[in-house]
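Catalogue entry: protein

Sequence with per-residue tokens
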Amino acid sequence: QVAHSVMLAKARVSGTCVVVYSDILFDRQILDRLLASPHPVTLVVDRAYRTLPAREKKLDLVIAEDQAGTAGPRRLRLSTFKPLRRIGKHIEARRADYEFIGMAFFREEGFQALARAWDDALRNFAGRPFHEAPSPEQASFTDLIQDLIERGVPVHGMEIDHGWSEIHSLEDYQRLNAYYQGLTAGAGAAR
């Protein structure tokens, strides 16, 4: 139902727009890089998801068009923006290149395409399956993004390697709190 929540704002959006899931913390540099994207629709995608401890949730996984050079820790990065082919929770982990972190940037034409896709989904799929969702009314944000991809709207992934975290449990909160307290204590000692 995240798609519905995002689209509640469609009448108020003009120009560029950033969508950020409410359960993530991220490094400011990620947002700065995202805002510089030249593409109509850009999602932040993390290639490090395979190295993280297993999480008790289905991940929003992504398959990129250009998979060359994504294996291994070292590689030449000619572009950190890659065209995306597929996104969703039902992608096999071994086939996925990235995890969508819950942060997206839309230029005006990208958000207009998203709004048109939403309106079409409500009109043409009401009460029927829409990508991975039972209906558009229950669709996730990634269902709507997959619809854009299938319509031929350029959707790019901005590749990152860590720099963000979800807060889904008390343990997540405690881990992040300890991390930031450590940063604050280190900054005080450096004065």
